[in-house]
Design goal:
Helix content of chain B: 25-40%
Number of domains of chain A: 2
CATH architecture of the largest domain in chain A: 2-Layer Sandwich
Largest sheet of chain B: 6 strands, parallel
Shape of chain B: globular
Number of strands of chain B: 20
Largest sheet of chain A: 5 strands, antiparallel
Number of helices of chain A: 5
Oligomer: heterodimer
CATH class of the largest domain in chain A: Alpha Beta
CATH topology of the largest domain in chain A: Alpha-Beta Plaits
Strand content of chain A: 35-45%
CATH superfamily of the largest domain in chain A: ACT domain
Distance between the termini of chain A: 38 Å
Number of helices of chain B: 24
């Protein structure tokens, strides 16, 4: 009867009322029950309806993931919960800002790598760059690791946000 | 959360003081009693209560008790219980009660005062982050920031508290919001748009359940608090189902009374201190129909060995209760009565008849288990056995219009085992949270809702001490509550676990320095009685029942009696300790010892 199945990682897209405490409610639900949050992004998406979309990447056994979705769905300010990983074709993107400090050949190599990852240069000094890179999480991670080997770095990542493919609007 | 969320038929709103709006909404929602305790941050509401003559305010002596009283009121009537507390300590004291109501799905509205808006965040006197503190222990909470939202917030709060799986909702009210004028629309019974949980079952699944029921050879019906919360009609429907199927039926602690305990199909409560026959039936069944119960750990015992060979159907109003701990074959999200009604209709449509031949054999097996007479005990000598005390209390009150509340511990389990409930809403106990001190204030709320009924708090001496300040409330309102204390001078259940799991090292579980309960009663203007021997027991119960007012009975019972039967922690349904003679042969596994 015990759940001994494999741990899976899922991206959930949650449309909520943008009201005070809603993020704390969602985050508290995870921490209070010992569930993982691997990444979390949230921002208002409809100023008129006052709704926000929370994209959360979580991991657990299929039974736990189901439980998380049901617990989210029963919250008063939650309009819809969509399991992007499980149910539909979707795209996911993450953005990272990477500051690298280096010089000489390593500086030239950093620019080359940035170019091949289609990263944009947002800021430059004689011994530093700030790059902006966008992609799925593994691409962003790969870029960060390459930069790490080319100098001293500092990283800011947005976490994953996702949306379904196709010509259907998901949410009212 | 603007007012556009409410599809109210708009008349011109009337402006009035916020506190007045609050009371207006309470009146609109049919509230007739509030349990509360005043303080600086709710004085405007108390001023409005002073001017109001429709809503009765009951002054408790501690905010935790206010919530438990409201729970007793709610569970015994099916209505929403309302609480009013001040900011800071008022709100934090209410937290235990709110958590209790959340675990047991009791509809509660708690109004809490808050420091004025401009002082929030400044560590003002009696300021606490009430919405932060209560977020995980309520179904939903509000901090009212704009007077324009006041009415809509309150109305939605009632809707949330009573809709779907009921629960507590707190509304934090800054003092300026209470004082400033706010718009009030004469209510035209509006349904808030938000929060519309599913309450009707999927017809296809109901069809499927009936076809599965036809194949059942060793069925069991396992029902719980969802039946009680759904309303008395759900109990009627459940009884209809039991009588049409002739199936064995067991109830959880929270469901007692949903089926008449004297019905021959009723196996008694199941779980850790449930009956042998109920647990064996659950273990050996091939078809389990769970309506409104949540596979609580106190019910299932060891999940690895829980009812290993059964097909399981689970109907629950809370989708997140389905497949939470036990994976079921069919899960149906529905209100209990809506499901039972649909099931009964579908059984008729499919001309369901139970498999009588198999059922006969199944009942023969169950009756064998029953014949073990797992609740037997030996009453010999002068010292009162607690089981005997409850049995006599039940027998001597049988047929009366009675409500029973309990605290938490051995006495609670003995009450569940030996007191028979014939109707729903008659039994108020803290199941999920297990809150000692619940029963006395719950009896206050129950008695206020049913002033002419007999209300008994079956108590233990340790639990009683946790909220005994409510004797003052009982005294003030002349509530004829009967407090029946099973006094064994121990935190009995703690002592029992220490005996079974910790080598009888009774660490800090002796209740030393007990008061003289008879004199205690007298200081509050109540009647105090004491039963020390079996010979005195019946006379004391008679005297208690005959007295037209509150009574404390100090019923001194066998000190080291254990509560049996028992599934030791970590064990399975078919591995029960039946009684003291069985105790030595069963030891608790190391795995079991870490469980609570």
């Amino acid at each position: 009867m015990l759940d001994t199945s494999q741990i899976e990682t899922h991206t959930l897209s949650v449309l909520v009322d943008n009201e005070p405490g809603v993020l704390a409610r969602v985050v508290g639900l995870f921490s209070g029950r010992g569930y993982n949050i691997e990444s979390l992004t949230v921002s208002e998406v409809d100023n008129e309806k006052k709704t926000s979309r929370i994209s959360v990447v979580t991991s657990g056994t299929p039974m736990v993931i189901e439980q998380i979705k049901k617990l989210l769905e029963r919250q008063v300010p939650v309009h819809q919960v969509r399991d992007l990983t499980l149910t539909v074709a979707h795209v996911e993107r993450e953005l990272a800002l990477v500051k690298i400090i280096n010089s000489g050949n390593r500086r030239i190599e950093a620019l080359r790598v940035a170019d091949s990852f289609r990263a944009r240069t947002l800021d430059s000094t004689l011994d530093s760059f700030v790059f902006e890179v966008t992609g799925n999480s593994s691409k962003v991670s790969a870029f960060v690791e390459l930069m790490r080997s080319l100098g001293d770095i500092e990283v800011a990542r947005t976490g994953v946000c996702g949306i379904t493919r196709g010509n259907q609007l998901d949410l009212s | 959360m603007s007012q556009t969320k409410q599809n109210k038929t708009k008349s011109a709103p009337v402006m009035m003081e916020g506190a007045e709006v609050i009371l207006k909404v309470l009146e609109d929602q049919g509230v007739d009693v509030i349990f509360g305790y005043p303080g600086g941050a709710v004085l405007p509401i108390y001023d409005a209560i002073f001017r109001n003559n429709k809503i009765r305010h009951v002054l408790v002596r501690h905010e935790q008790a206010a919530v438990h009283a409201a729970e007793g009121y709610a569970r015994s009537t099916g209505k929403v219980g309302v609480v009013l507390v001040t900011s800071g300590p008022g709100a934090t004291n209410a937290v235990t009660g709110l958590t209790d109501a959340l675990m047991d799905s009791v509809p509660i509205i708690c109004l809490s005062g808050q420091v004025p808006s401009h002082l929030i965040g400044s560590d003002a006197f009696q300021e606490a982050d009430t919405s932060g503190i209560t977020r995980p222990c309520t179904k939903y909470n509000y901090l009212v920031k704009k007077s324009a939202d006041l009415q809509a917030n309150l109305e939605e709060a009632f809707h949330v508290a009573r809709t779907g799986r009921p629960g507590p909702v707190i509304i934090d009210l800054p003092k300026d919001i209470q004082l400033l004028d706010a718009p009030y629309n004469e209510a035209d019974t509006v349904m808030p748009k938000r929060y519309q949980p599913q309450t009707q079952p999927d017809a296809k699944l109901v069809k499927k359940v009936v076809s599965m029921m036809k194949k059942a050879k060793k069925p069991v019906i396992y029902a719980g608090g969802g039946i009680i919360n759904s309303g008395t009609d759900a109990s009627t429907s459940l009884r209809e189902l039991v009588s049409q199927t002739g199936w064995p039926t067991t109830l959880t602690l929270m469901g007692l009374g949903a089926v008449d305990a004297s019905d021959q199909h009723f196996l008694g409560m199941l779980g850790m201190h449930g009956t042998y026959e109920a647990n064996m039936t659950m273990h050996d069944c091939d078809f389990m129909l769970n309506v409104g119960a949540r596979f609580d750990d106190r019910v299932t015992g060891n999940l690895m060995h829980f009812s290993p060979n059964s097909v399981k159907v689970h109907a629950d109003i809370d989708a997140s209760s389905i497949d939470k701990v036990v994976k079921v074959d069919v899960g149906i999200v529905s209100d209990a009565n809506a499901f039972l009604q649909a099931l009964l209709a579908e059984m008729k449509a499919q001309s369901f008849t139970p498999d009588q031949k198999s059922l006969k054999g199944w009942w023969a097996k169950i009756n064998e288990w029953r014949s073990r007479n797992c609740l037997k005990y030996t009453q010999k000598g002068d010292v009162i056995k607690p089981q005997h005390a409850i049995e006599r209390l039940y027998q001597m009150t049988h047929g009366k219009d009675i409500y029973v509340t309990t605290e938490v511990g051995q006495h609670q389990m003995w009450a569940a085992q030996y007191f028979k409930f014939h109707e729903p809403n008659r039994w108020m106990t803290s199941g999920g949270l297990g809150t000692m001190g619940y029963g006395l204030p719950a009896a206050v709320g129950t008695q206020l809702a049913h002033p002419d009924s007999l209300v008994i708090d079956i108590s233990g001496e340790a639990s009683f001490l946790m909220n005994m300040q409510e004797l003052s409330t009982i005294s003030q309102y002349r509530l004829p509550v009967k407090i029946f204390i099973l006094n064994n001078e121990w935190m009995g259940m703690v002592r029992q676990w220490q005996e079974l799991n910790h080598g009888s090292r009774y660490s800090e579980s002796y209740t030393a320095s007990l008061p003289d309960f008879v004199k205690l009663a007298e200081t509050f203007g109540m009647k105090g009685l004491r039963a020390q021997t079996t010979a005195q027991l019946d006379d004391v119960i008679s005297e208690m029942l005959a007295y037209d007012g509150p009574v404390i009975v100090d019923c001194m019972v066998e000190k080291e009696e254990n509560c049996f039967p028992m599934i030791p922690s970590g064990a399975a349904h078919n591995d029960m300790i039946l009684g003291p003679e069985d105790e030595a042969s069963k030891t608790v596994s190391d795995e079991g010892k870490i469980l609570v």
